[in-house]
Design brief:
Strand order of the largest sheet of chain B: 1-2-3-4-5
Radius of gyration of chain A: 15 Å
Largest interface: A-B, 30 and 29 residues
Order of helices and strands of chain A: EHHEEHHEE
Number of helices of chain A: 4
Number of strands of chain B: 5
Largest sheet of chain B: 5 strands, mixed
Distance between the termini of chain B: 36 Å
Structural class of chain A: alpha+beta
Strand content of chain B: 25-35%
Shape of chain B: globular
Oligomer: heterodimer
Largest sheet of chain A: 5 strands, antiparallel
C-alpha cells in the first residue's frame, strides 16, 4: 500500500458559541485538498460539530479549550482523515451514555451527539477518564475497505 | 463566528413555506420556532420548511425542530421538509424526525402533495 500526501493540522479553540464551525471548516478544507468527496466531508464535519458541542456543553473543563488534531492521508483507496477532539474536563462513561440512547429513528430531543458521531464516521474510539478529560478519535474514509 | 440563520416566510393559501439560510443550531432553531409559532398562532396548520440553503445542522437545532413538530401535531397540523442535503436527511432519520414529518426531495413535490 502506498501512502502519500499526508497533511496534519492542530488547533486549539476557545469554547465559544459556534466555534465548532471553525473546527469543521478546517477539517473540511484539509479533506477537500486530499480529494475527499463532498458527501463524505459533510458527514465528517457534522460529526466534528457534535464532538465539539459535547466538549463545550458537557466537559466542565477549567481551561475552556478544545484541542483538535487532523491527519489526512491519501492511500490507494482514497483519502483517510483521522480526527482527535480533546477536552481537559471531567470525563464521562461512554457505556452509560450509550445505555441512555434512544433507538435510532425514535424522536428524542437530546443526547444524540455521540450517536450522530458514530453514524457519520467510519471508526470512533473514545478515551476518557474521570477528571482526566476526554479524547474522541474518529476516522473517515473515502472508501472503507 | 457569524453563522446567523435567516428565515424567510412565504404565506400560501393553505399554509406557509419557511426558507432557511444558514446554520441550524440552538439560535437558528429558536429563530425557526419563533416564526413557526407566529404562524401557528395565526391558524396556519401546514408548514413546509425548505432547507435548500442550509448545509449544517446540529443536534440542538434538531431538538428544537422536534419541539415545533410536536406542537404542530398537538394543534392537528403538519410540518414537512424539503431540499435536504444527504447528510441532513441522514441526521433527521437518526434523530427521529422522519417518523413525524414528511421529507420531500424537492419543493414542487411538497407543494403538490401538501396542496400549498
Amino acid at each position: 500500500m502506498t501512502m502519500a500526501a499526508e497533511r496534519q493540522m492542530e488547533l486549539t479553540l476557545p469554547m465559544v458559541d459556534d466555534i465548532e464551525i471553525a473546527a469543521a471548516r478546517a477539517a473540511g478544507n484539509l479533506a477537500r485538498e486530499l480529494g475527499m468527496s463532498s458527501e463524505k466531508i459533510d458527514e465528517m464535519t457534522h460529526a466534528i460539530i457534535e464532538a465539539c458541542i459535547n466538549a463545550r456543553e458537557h466537559s466542565g473543563c477549567a481551561d475552556n479549550r478544545i484541542y483538535l488534531r487532523f491527519v489526512g492521508t491519501s492511500i490507494g483507496a482514497g483519502p483517510r482523515i483521522d480526527v482527535w477532539v480533546t477536552d481537559h474536563g471531567r470525563g464521562f462513561d461512554p457505556g452509560e451514555a450509550r445505555s441512555r440512547r434512544p433507538a435510532p429513528g425514535m424522536a428524542h430531543k437530546r443526547g444524540r451527539g455521540l450517536q450522530l458521531i458514530e453514524a457519520h464516521m467510519d471508526e470512533v474510539d473514545i478515551t476518557t477518564e474521570q477528571g482526566g478529560g476526554t479524547t474522541i478519535h474518529m476516522v473517515k474514509y473515502e472508501k472503507k475497505s | 463566528m457569524n453563522e446567523e440563520l435567516r428565515v424567510a416566510v412565504d404565506r400560501r393559501t393553505n399554509g406557509a413555506i419557511l426558507y432557511t439560510k444558514g446554520y441550524i443550531n440552538n439560535v437558528g432553531g429558536e429563530e425557526i420556532a419563533n416564526r413557526a409559532y407566529e404562524l401557528m398562532d395565526a391558524d396556519v396548520r401546514t408548514l413546509l420548511l425548505n432547507l435548500r440553503e442550509t448545509k449544517i445542522v446540529n443536534s440542538i437545532g434538531i431538538s428544537i425542530l422536534i419541539e415545533i413538530i410536536e406542537k404542530m401535531i398537538d394543534k392537528g397540523g403538519k410540518i414537512a421538509f424539503c431540499c435536504l442535503t444527504p447528510v441532513i436527511h441522514k441526521t433527521f432519520q437518526i434523530m427521529g424526525l422522519a417518523n413525524y414529518a414528511t421529507i420531500y426531495e424537492n419543493e414542487e413535490a411538497a407543494i403538490q402533495d401538501l396542496a400549498l
